[in-house]
């Protein structure tokens, strides 16, 4: 299982590891992140109180004989359903349904950052006490960005509940959780709420509104230098820098061969 560096998003496929993909926050991760943020916020609320079951999904038990205020002062049931839209297999209102609205590739440079090299520092100290830091290349970095939309659809039985939830969702993504989402690898570029609508469901009114999040995320590949370069040569002169004039130590020759992969592993 692969877990993205800095995002914690797991995937079961081996292809990301084979092609040295360390981050690809395109589709599943942004949806899961928005669901998690909204679930966390509403779990703190008393009226629109969100409760998870033992598997991490919204707790929606049989409401037969439950009091009308169940879930307000206890965790018997969730009072708002928050999940991905296409996992919406239980009819429960009010609900907040998250879906992906598409994405497009946005290069961050003309060459997709392919000339960027990541380095590790190696410190060498000679017998005179002189110290030198060598910057050793470890990875070639390829990177790009995705821009697209995340749709958050609010469905309720009442107009006031719909308005409350839409206002809260937009506020969380615009300000309250903006910095946290950014640190998690998802930039909210813009937030907009569409026109409200209503529908008829089982002879009752259903009130809807969609909040659209304009988002930006990134992908990165780290190609190990060891897979491209066989060896890196270092040239070092030994001398006492505290004496003038500086004279390189004579008749001192060092012949050595060091594998780059071994040097990189020794630094970890």
Model regions low in confidence, pLDDT < 50 over at least 5 residues: 1-8, 263-268
Shape: elongated
Kindly name the structural category: alpha+beta
What do the pLDDT scores average to? 82
- Please give the number of β-strands: 10
Beta-strand residue fraction = 25-35%
User: Which sheet architecture does the biggest sheet show?
Assistant: 8 strands, mixed
Helix content: 10-25%
Rg result: 28 Å
Whole-number total of structural domains: 1
Q: State the helix count.
A: 5
Order of helices and strands: EEHEHEEEEHHEEEH
Measured distance between first and last alpha carbons = 22 Å
Care to give the gist of this entry?
The protein is 19% helix and 35% strand.
Question: What's the topology here?
Answer:
Blueprint: E1 2-3, E2 10-11, H1 15-18, E3 21-24, H2 28-42, E4 81-84, E5 95-106, E6 116-125, E7 131-156, H3 159-176, H4 178-183, E8 187-193, E9 197-201, E10 204-224, H5 260-267
Parallel strand pairs: 4-5
Antiparallel strand pairs: 1-2, 3-10, 5-7, 6-7, 7-10, 8-10, 9-10
Please tell me about this protein's structure:
There is one protein chain. The chain is of the alpha+beta class and 268 residues long. The chain has one domain (2-107, 143-224). It has helices spanning 15-18, 28-42, 159-176, 178-183, 260-267; strands at 2-3, 10-11, 21-24, 81-84, 95-106, 116-125, 131-156, 187-193, 197-201, 204-224. The strands form 2 sheets. Strands 3, 4, 5, 6, 7, 8, 9 and 10 form an 8-stranded mixed sheet that branches. Strand 9 and strand 10 (204-224) form a beta hairpin. It starts with a strand and ends with a helix.
